[in-house]
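Researcher: Here's the sequence for the chain we discussed earlier.
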Amino acid sequence: MLKTLMLNSALILALLCLETAKASTSDDTETSIRIAFLADIHLHDPYEAAKGLPDNGLPKDPLTGEPLLLRSMHGQLHSTRLFNENYWVLRAALDTIVQQGINLVALPGDFSDDGQPANITALTQVLDEYSERYNLRFYAINGNHDPTRPYSRPGGKTDFLSSDGSEIAVASQDHQACKNQQASLCTNALQEWGYAEIIATMSDHGFMPHQADLLFETPFGTKEMNRRHWDWCNHKNQCIAMPDSSYLVEPVEGVWLLAIDANVYEPVGDYSNRQFKGSGNAGYNALLHYKPKLIEWISDVAGRAKAKNKKLIAFSHFPMADFYDSQATTMAQLFGNQAMQLKRLPHQSTTEALAATGLTLHFAGHMHLYDLFTSEQHGLLNVQVPSLAAYQPGYTVLTVKQGNHANIETVVVKEVPNFNRWFTLYQTEWQYRLNQGITNWPASTLLTTNYSDFTNAHLKQVIRQRYLQHEWPKDLASVFTQHSVQRVLKLAGCPISDDLPSDFLESTAMLFIDDYYRARNAGEFAELEGDIKIYHQLYRHLVEGQCDGSLSSIRLEQRVNKVMQLILETLNSAQQDKQHFNIIL
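Model: Thanks. This is the structure I predict for it:
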């Protein structure tokens, strides 16, 4: 557990000024400024969402008897994130932040499930509570889930859980499923809000000036949200006022937080129709085209920060750099350029354009993984903050010290009170699916003792239910699911040393795939099933050219060799994504 003194912003300011005046060499812990970054919370509040709905068909909380609007476990195990348990993990994470004496918290987007009124309201209540009780100050910026589109629209899901374990559709009143009476339940709490509604509700948490902020500005010269927009016009002279919530804030003396709204909602058809694509796959590749004035403002901010000797820390929802450790070409060759969310990877030219603005440190979310990448030119460090709703669950803390020194640490949220509170309701779902002969999930998924282990069980099922089914070529997937480690190593042309343990060689080759995704998601703090020393040995064979798939004339074996290269290189490079490291700002 990290240790620090809890200092309010006024005391921090006073200490910084005192140290500057005296050029003191006292302990950094007395003057350090700490900021926690919580990305991809994806909050869904099952209690809030159930309010106003008939409760006779909804599952009830096992302790309080309150009705719950829960997503099914079947739905969770087909998604890259957990939907329900983030209700508990958000508070657990904030509690550890309070215990560490941190009072500045940045939220780099996707803080809600899909920007629904129930979830934005619930999140705001939590942030209000921690602000009032513990003097936390929150700085949020939007992600592609909040909002899903720039303006409010109907919302709903088809995989909510009923009391008997079946899945039901629940949607907003204006949703077509409700208009056609195809939804089981209808509630406006599930409408998907746009910018105006989200920011009006969360205005106290970054989007508008805080009374303690020393500086607040936007690219538009105003804090008023109805004037914070870009004018996009097409060849028909049809124009759209596209909202942008970006802002610059100085929460304490000497530190500038730059919150970048990197959402790009590309218009579809005539602008007058107000139809847009989602921003999930757009990111900074599209932003350079659609928001050039934003890039100019970022460059101006970076220039002023340098001139004024301010420490500039940028954060946004989308990555500014490669998060796959230069493996994208290999991944595209093996799985296709549409797989593994490769569309979300910033081009190298995009990264260099962003680095050229003068930014040197950026915290991002979106990918639900932990990764570090520094651009070749200009030295822009992109830190991918892990999600609280996926393996490994955690957040990242930046400690700004005296001079230009800083430390970055990622904290795993392992223990979460009540994380298994609704497991009996999932057991009802499992039994229902069994009785109905519906494709089921392993009951062992619920046999976990802490939240971190639960996210590991979730990841294993996502690999089997989603990645292997929809991203891996069937023949490659079959090789790893149906053969042993020893057989796969032989197919890959790798030597099998006498000192390799027999139990390792006899294991199913799914061991490789599971550990590949663990390492890709969690970097150094991935808890691998295989022995890292054995992986290092196999990697040495690879580097030394001993795993030579080119010797085979069978194309499948060459591709197995390529997959093993990807896995072993990822396992090796993940060790470079350190849980603790120091930087110079």
